[in-house]
């Protein structure tokens, strides 16, 4: 399994946000995570690459394994976890530096040796090609990245994870700031990255979960209610709460 949690519970102070969550995410697949606002989707993602811990009032129990290694264990280096597990957010957070420097930014943080100019060129080209952005930007790599369209910026945010050679990509509503056309383009890209990367994507867009994922997890109030193959979840949900949610009967 690419990601496997067992008995994962999480508290923000005295408020419990995750209850005994057992989730197994299959390697090379796209898994979508759905559920009403506040059910703990972002909390789950943030636990997998350990971003939650920047809050001192967060406490967790249980285990989180990424390719068999417990990322919560003592002595685990956060830098190593974040290299393996990249994260993409709702709003593209491209940095106000050049497109080229955005792609190379993570390497600067994560590796001791700075790539040479030609190594850098190579990494930039490969990464931008992988996210289907190269043709749009190859003649303006020195331009400030924040001048790109939101779709291009979100693709760039994915591209800049790739030099670290992550194996898992966590995406928290990566299309929610995009218009329908840009959403479709980013969905196509996610589908294209499937296989080489294991992708876990949170979405409020049922059509997107249905179109663009192999498996689907439905969460409610910090618990996993159902986790099945996506087609099955939408055709024959096993749980009444799942059926209600995907048919839009929830607030
Ligand atoms: N930093 C925090 N401190 C305290 N409580 C938090 C914090 N982050 C989230 N919560 C609470 O934990 C619960 C789960 O929040 P989370 O953001 O994981 O939900 P979500 O499923 O991602 O919702 P949405 O669909 O709105 O993004 C909510 O009740 C939320 O208020
Ligand atoms: Mg969220």
Characterization of this structure:
By secondary structure, this protein is of the alpha/beta class. The protein has a domain at 3-93 and 166-246: Rossmann fold. It is built from ten helices and ten strands. Strands 6-7-8-3-9-10 form a six-stranded mixed β-sheet, with helices on both faces. Helix 6 (150-159) packs parallel to helix 7 (180-193). The chain binds adenosine-5'-triphosphate and magnesium ion. Magnesium ion (MG) binds at residues 41-42, 172.
Which tags fit this structure?
251 residues, alpha/beta, Rossmann fold, six-stranded mixed sheet, four-stranded antiparallel sheet, 10 strands, binds adenosine-5'-triphosphate, binds magnesium ion
Which secondary structure elements does this structure contain, and how are they paired or packed?
Layout: E1 3-12, E2 15-25, E3 30-34, H1 41-48, E4 58-66, E5 69-70, H2 78-84, E6 85-88, H3 99-110, H4 117-130, H5 134-137, H6 150-159, E7 168-172, H7 180-193, E8 198-202, H8 206-212, E9 215-220, E10 223-229, H9 230-235, H10 240-246
Helix pairs in contact: 6-7
Bound molecules: adenosine-5'-triphosphate (ATP) and magnesium ion (MG).
Adenosine-5'-triphosphate binds next to strand 2 and helix 1.
Please name the fourth-level CATH homologous superfamily of the domain at 3-93 and 166-246: P-loop containing nucleotide triphosphate hydrolases
What is the mean predicted local confidence, pLDDT?
Answer: 94
What share of residues is helical?
25-40%
Q: Structural class, from helix and strand content?
A: alpha/beta
Unreliable stretches covering 5 or more consecutive residues: none
Q: Architecture of the domain at 3-93 and 166-246, according to CATH? A: 3-Layer(aba) Sandwich
Largest sheet features: 6 strands, mixed
Shape: globular
Distance between the termini: 33 Å
Radius of gyration based on Cα positions = 18 Å
Number of strand elements: 10
CATH overall fold name of the domain at 3-93 and 166-246: Rossmann fold
Provide the succession of SSEs.
EEEHEEHEHHHHEHEHEEHH
**Oligomer classification:** single chain
Bound molecules: adenosine-5'-triphosphate, magnesium ion
For this structure, what is the CATH class of the domain at 3-93 and 166-246? Alpha Beta
Beta-strand percentage range: 25-35%
């Amino acid at each position: 399994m690419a990601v496997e949690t067992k008995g994962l519970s999480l508290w923000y102070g005295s408020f419990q946000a995750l209850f005994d969550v057992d989730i197994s995410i299959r390697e090379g697949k796209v898994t979508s995570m759905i559920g009403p606002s506040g059910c703990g989707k972002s909390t789950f993602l943030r636990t997998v690459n350990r971003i939650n811990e920047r809050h001192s009032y967060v406490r967790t129990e249980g285990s989180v394994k990424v390719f068999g290694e417990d990322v919560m264990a003592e002595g685990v280096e956060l830098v190593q976890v974040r290299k393996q597990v990249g994260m993409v957010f709702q709003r593209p957070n491209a940095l106000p530096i050049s497109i080229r420097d955005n792609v190379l930014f993570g390497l600067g943080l994560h590796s001791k040796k700075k790539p040479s100019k030609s190594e850098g060129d190579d990494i930039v080209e490969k990464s931008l090609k992988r996210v289907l952005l190269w043709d749009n930007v190859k003649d303006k790599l020195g331009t400030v990245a924040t001048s790109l369209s939101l779709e291009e910026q979100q693709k760039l945010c994915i591209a800049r994870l790739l030099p670290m050679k992550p194996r898992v990509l966590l995406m928290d509503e990566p299309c929610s700031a995009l218009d329908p056309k840009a959403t479709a383009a980013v969905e196509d890209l996610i589908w294209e990255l499937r296989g080489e990367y294991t992708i876990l994507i949170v979405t409020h867009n049922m059509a997107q979960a249905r179109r663009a994922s192999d498996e689907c997890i439905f969460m409610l109030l910090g618990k996993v209610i159902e986790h099945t193959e996506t087609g099955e979840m939408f055709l024959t949900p096993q749980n009444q709460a799942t059926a209600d949610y995907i048919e839009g009967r929830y607030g």
